[in-house]
Amino acid sequence: MKDPSRSSTSPSIISEDVIINGHSHEDDNPFAEYMWMENEEEFNRQAIAFVLEQFLFFAQIEEELWEEEFIERCFQEMLEEEEEHEWFIPARDLPQTMDQIQDQFNDLVISDSSSLEDLVVKSNLNPNAKEFVPGVKYLNI
Length: 141
Fold this sequence. Notes:
There is one protein chain. 48% of the residues lie in helices and 3% in strands. The protein is an all-alpha fold. It has a domain at 58-87. A hairpin with a 2-residue loop joins strand 1 and strand 2 (23-24). It is elongated and about 125 Å long. 0% of the residues are buried.
C-alpha cells in the first residue's frame, strides 16, 4: 500500500532549493533576518504617527457622539418640560359662544360695595384731578 503523504504529484526536492529558517542557503548575510532593525527609528516614527492619527480619529468620533447625546438629552428635556406645563390652547381655553363669555364676565366679581367704599376712602388719588389724555401737555397755571 502507498503512503498518501508521499504522492507522486509532489515536486522533487533539490538540495539547493531547501529553505532553512526562512532563508535559502544562498544568503551570504547571516543577519538578513534582523536587517529591518537598521531603520528601527523610522519604523517607530511611522508607528507613532499612525497610532496618533488613529487616536485623533477616534477622539473626533467620540466628541461627535458626545455632542449627539447632549443634543438628544436637551431635546428630551424640552419635550418633558412641554408635557409638564399646561399650555394655552385657544380652541380649548377661549370661549366659543356669547353665553360662555357672559358666564366668564359674571364670574369676575371685584368685591362687595362695602369694601369698594373702603378702597375709595383709603385711596391716595386726587378725585379733583383732570382726566389724563395721552399726548396732551398740561401746564401748571
